[in-house]
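Ticket #314: bound-state structure for zinc ion.
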Amino acid sequence: MNEQRDRTPALRRRNLLKGTGVAAVAAAAAGGGVAAAQNDTAGVTLRWLGTNAWEFTTETATVLIDPWVSRFPTGAYTDGGADPETRIEVHEDVIDEHLPKADTILVTHGHWDHIADVPYLAGRTGATVLGTETHLNLMRAMGAPEGQLSQVAGGELYQFDGYTVEVFRSSHSASGEHKRITFGGTLPGEVPQRPKKIKDLVEGGSLTYLIDFGGVSFFNMGSASFHEHEIAGIRPTVLFLQPGGGHTPRFVERALEATGFPPYVVASHWDDFDRPLTEPAVKGGDWEALRDRVAAASPDTEFLLIDHLESHEF
Ligand SMILES: [Zn+2]
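RESOLUTION: The complex was predicted; output attached.
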């Protein structure tokens, strides 16, 4: 496919960057984030597991955001869109293969491609799980261990072993003529029936996260939206951006401005997630357009495209 040809040069460029990013990161970090971690750990390995699933590994910790690797066909990238009646599948063998460790799991919203694997993964790893009341209720209904679930609403700043996590209120990107959120709604209070179909996993409010490892920090949104005033003043080393946000004026440009034109932008959630994780990512969202907008708005920002199961050292 053409997409395959187009992608190769960018990936080669990324590989050349390996090991050369540290000086730039150190210089950028001098500007400071809002949250200075107590432990000045150098070196974070960032690995992509498709969608908005990212693994951050240091010598002492593994942090996951939206870890979802089960991947069952939904039609999400066909003209008809995802079939709401699609049954949720949790492939424990696939989760075990790709996600060996977790200390902290951050959930941005309740959609299946973000949350469906977390209950099993939390049980296996003993990780702390952050999410809204709705996210946690959905995961409780799927068997997540109650004692590990940490309810957040935005505004929290938590110290972990070698890193901090700051939580911000957000909204999921809207779609369609009436600016609606896919599977919108919340489920506060009582734990619902066990979700069986993807439509049962409602958005449940959205959160964004700043993960600060001391020398390098990462800001992740989970969908193509953020609350500009909530994140005012943050200065991450790495900003994750994804295609979309068509209903959000100047989404990419405002995100870059709000985060101080970070040294790095990493493309997220651009793959067709009906396709296998174990093969090179097939384009679902237009990452080239995203790259071009980043280049125009922030010429000094390095745009990184990381392929399925590949890593980048910061
Ligand atoms: Zn998603």
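RESOLUTION NOTES: The domain at 2-313 is CATH 3.60.15.10 (Metallo-beta-lactamase; Chain A).
TICKET STATUS: resolved
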